[in-house]
Amino acid sequence: MGVLEGLRVVELASSGGTGFCGMFLADLGADVILIERPSDDVGRARPEAIQHRGKRSAVLDLAQSEAIGAVLQLIDRADALIEGLQPGGMEHLGLGPEVCLARKPSLVYGRLTGEDETACAAMSGALWIASQPGVPAAAPNTLLGQVGGGALYLTFGVLAALLRAQSDGCGQIVDAAMVDGCANLLNMMLGVVPSRDGKFDAIRANGYGRHWVRSYRCADGEWVRVEPDEPQFYADLIRRLGLDHDERFIHGQENRKQWPQLAAELDALFATKTRAQWCKLLEGSDACFAPVLSPIEAARHPHNVARGIYQTVDGVLQAAPAPRFTATPSPSIHRVPPLGAHTRDVLRELRALGGTDAT
Amino acid sequence: MGVLDGLKVVEIAALGPAPACGAMLADLGADVIVIERPAENAGVPRPHETWHRGKRSVVIDLKQPGTADTVLMLVEQADALIEGMRPGVMERLGLGPEACFARKPSLVYGRLTGWGQEGPLKHVAGHDGNYIALSGALWMGTSPALRPEPPPGIYGDVAGGALYLATGLLAGVLRARKDGRGQVVDAAMVDGSAHLMNLLFASAFTRDGLDQLRPKETTVVPVLSPLQAARHPNNAARGVYTVLDGVLQATAAPRFLRTPSSPTAHVPARGEHTSQVLAAPNSAFEGMH
Questions:
Q1: Whose CB among A120, A198, A297, B150 lies 3.0–4.6 Å from A293's, allowing a Cys bridge?
Q2: Which of A98, A158, A295 minimizes the C-alpha distance to B206?
């Protein structure tokens, strides 16, 4: 089921973004065989490991040459491989790109590189952009590094290379380096810098100081977010806030010197009502408004509920597959396989195709 | 040149992330024709609009009768379409999915919006920060000690939007090349920005548990600005950034060892390719690569 039904992917388990890439492909219907190492946990349920939902887990001891042989046989039948081991790790195992592409010339060999997500985010410029000026840098390095700059680019790149391999029969290495991806995430906003006096600070979090693009704290300590950038939407917000008689607010987008003062006044205004009260007043309008929700609160919001964005499976909150496809919808959220749940199945399939001795 | 050589894409220009999706495909070699509205800056260089780099720009006034048919001629030759209007606008222009599938059944029709094609908020105005506020990503991505301010455009527009649509379009095209069937890809930033948190949800079951995963002050030094990052020897050696026509920008990502992407392409002026494309709209994609 799903748009990628029929696609076969071998994933070498490692911590971090590779697992997310495998989940993304499995969400869209690919058959992802996850090769994991032996541990005491074999067979234990692990519903919290949602980065492995929908995959088939095979435990193989990669220190054994028979196991490497089995992985190579799986690769022979796969369209793509994804890995995020330490540099040289795959080569050391005898599973490097030269070996694999020699056996299977159409293989797409996806590598997620960059050992430390925080260092990659810091070195790429992304951590600086995602942090507020004037305070110590603090940004979600997993979202920026492993997922945003890493796994999403790897997934995109693997599909691009598969499309190419489908037309010319030739595979290749896809090098998804977190530092490249983190920088690429910034591209759209880098294009905005020249229109903001060439100042990079102006595209940082909280870096431009517009009172109409800002998070405001409510009476109950929760937050709301407004962003009515277009003049007609801005006018709608000002009207709904009862400020449409105040010339300073009416022309507030034009006079930059007044932004800090107007922001301070709105700070005080938003602090007079709770988040729920603001939602009643502003949600569904053209004021470009939304409450700032935690994921647990987000899971209960009517829009998100109507779309089925969040679901709890085996007690674990998680987001449904995205994006959505009309003709080949993704199945409902898959369960997480226990470690090694499919080892026998996978080896049996290989045996049926010509034999392996791995156990 | 690049891994997506031969992929043909029609993009209906919009604000926000849809153009960024088109640029990601163009970076990898796709032939992206962007349909833009008439405006005073036609023909004027605009190197800072990096979200249009590497595309061909055609000016068509879609409000004029008969122009939809010209776009449909382009669609007939394309693998994919990208649009980022509010739900219903493309239909009103005569360019909705039905009109396009009638001309090209295998088309992958990509729609990029904040709230999605369905749901109670689908017609409501909003921007990047609103979508990620509602999905939980703004809360998750900001320090509890600070005002929850996101970097503009990163988590919603680009990560949760453009990248999900780009990936979805390629998945749809892979499928369409096998079974000849196109379809709509509904990429909603509220969906995408929730999905990209899945790696964090793996270890937290409660709001308190999730709270522990919110950003903390980093101890890594140095934290480089994009300008400093561009000059860092490792990044310079890799060519992570480039300055083109005076504008600092990141190069194509990811990288492909057999079919590397061309050097970063210039931004076309608005309408730079109008006469070239409209001279023979029935063969606009022929011979480009």
A1: A297
A2: A295
